[in-house]
Amino acid sequence: MRIGILGLGRIGAFHAETLSGLDAVESLVLTDPFTDAAKSAAERFGGEVVDSPQALLAAGVDGIVVAAATDAHPGLILAGVEAGIPVFCEKPVAKTMSEGVEVLKAVRGSDVPIQIGYNRRFDTGFVNARAAVQSGELGKLHTVRSTTLDPAPPPAAYIAASGGIFRDCSVHDFDIIRWVTGREVTEVYAVGGNRGADYIKEAGDADTTGAILTLDDGTIAVVSNSRHNARGYDVRMEIHGFTDSIAVGLEDKLPLRSVEPGVTFPAGTPHDFFMDRFTAAYRAELTAFTEVVAGTRPSPCTIEDALEAGWIADACTLSLHEHRPVTIAEVRTA
User: Distance of CA 36 to CAs 5, 61, 73, 218, Å?
Assistant: First the structure.
């Protein structure tokens, strides 16, 4: 099949490399407002460079991958759907939830599949955790702990446009909690602080946060996030039931150091970047998209899924600012 990629920055170039190595993908069509970025990706991974999204959509592509700036996501999703071309779009659907809802309304009733990029759904550990919950082997759940710690904060320009740590970082935890447990979040309480980069505080954001999520069956989920984790990129999940407890991310590249005597775990070099931690998951995610394009599977992460994680992020943002519990019903507008 022939896949178009819109946006050849860091993640777009990474997707170009991944797609170029998939057996199902015969050719790539690339476009980026910065022509040199598209040309560089074409030289490295192969592909035809065109000068606009319109030219790409007219180039006979079977599916498109949207890795452009967030502001461009709604228009590119809708352009793909209007052209009848399956769409993969990196999260979020749109910069704001209201824009995301408008996208959902615009595509409702269309049979053109749309997949939103939440790569943890394709990580083997999280896949195994979901299977364990679904099988009932853990018994009734009572506690979930989800952690995402970045090794260093992104630059100030990124922070200013990110929408805040809950919408940019924690949203991955929110999505994977829903996906693994099969439950919905009903209420949140969030706290946050600034102990690091001043520009994060100046942007009105927190650099370290914690959130308590109450799920619709009474399970409690604890989410921990930070922009500062000098030892590396730390993504983990614990799931505790009345019969058994399991963990995702307890492997030799875990960026933690044990101080217990005689303990050598973890023994490997810590993960230091999200692309390192989730290389295999990204490959599995884009492989799934080729199956969506081929019509052999439905979208594994819909716009509706992405918006549900977004409502949780909005509720946590409000909770942090107003120092109180917030229900999802309070922030949901659709």
Answer: 14, 22, 21, 52
* Residues facing residue 115 across a β-bridge: 88
Q: How far is 111 from 166, CA to CA, in rounded Å?
A: 31
In the chain, residues under CATH classification 3.40.50.720 are 2-112
**The predicted structure's pLDDT at residue 334:** 65
Domain spanning 121-273+308-332: which superfamily? Dihydrodipicolinate Reductase; domain 2 (3.30.360.10)
Q: Is domain 2-112 annotated with CATH 3.90.1150.10?
A: no
Cα–Cα nearest to 3, from 74, 104, 55, 20: 20
| Greatest Cα-to-Cα distance within the chain, rounded to the nearest angstrom | 63
In this prediction the pTM is 0.95
**For residue range 207-255, what is the model confidence (pLDDT) as tens digits?**
999 999 999 999 999 999 999 999 999 999 999 999 999 999 999 999 9
Which part of the chain has CATH 3.30.360.10?
A: 121-273+308-332
